[in-house]
Write a structure and sequence with these properties.
Radius of gyration: 20 Å
Number of helices: 5
Number of domains: 1
Distance between the termini: 66 Å
Strand content: under 5%
CATH class: Mainly Alpha
Structural class: mainly alpha
CATH superfamily: Nickel-containing superoxide dismutase
Oligomer: single chain
Mean pLDDT: 89
């Protein structure tokens, strides 16, 4: 008969580094908003822009917007599923709804060119920023890079 030893281990994520910060979600959301604004502002009627140049610029803006929206969603989902715990719900009863709506906004921003949704995403990330830092008992200012 073999001797077997059972070891029980606990970790909050695949790499239990303990380093979480909503700043990376904010930077990605800001990029989404910036690209959205650039797409809206890009004019097809500019005399110095050829059709090929316009299409190239617009497609680059769209690709960056979609990539950054996905990055934002990924960062938010890590915070939601790995950092926040059941005890955080007591202080933030709307935590799940806030994250769910933010993730939905990331998806909307990927497929749309909506300045309204880009701003709503920024607002949702700011709300998450405030929830996150409140759980740590810290008052960290919301500062945008742009």
């Amino acid at each position: 008969m073999e001797n077997t030893i059972t070891i029980q281990a606990f970790a909050h994520c695949d790499g239990p580094c303990g380093v979480y910060d909503p700043a990376s979600a904010r930077v990605a959301a800001e990029a989404v908003q910036s690209m959205t604004k650039k797409m809206v502002a890009l004019s097809t009627g500019d005399a110095d822009k050829s059709a090929a140049s316009y299409i190239n610029t617009m497609s680059r803006y769209a690709a960056i917007k979609e990539e950054e929206a996905q990055k934002c969603k990924d960062e938010l989902l890590v915070l939601w599923t790995d950092f926040f715990k059941p005890q955080h719900l007591e202080a933030n009863p709307d935590l799940h709804t806030t994250f769910w709506m933010a993730a939905k906004l990331c998806s909307a921003c990927k497929v749309e060119v909506s300045e309204q949704h880009a701003q709503e995403l920024m607002d949702a990330v700011e709300a998450i920023h405030n929830m996150f830092w409140a759980t740590k008992g810290r008052d960290v200012s919301w500062v945008r890079a742009s």
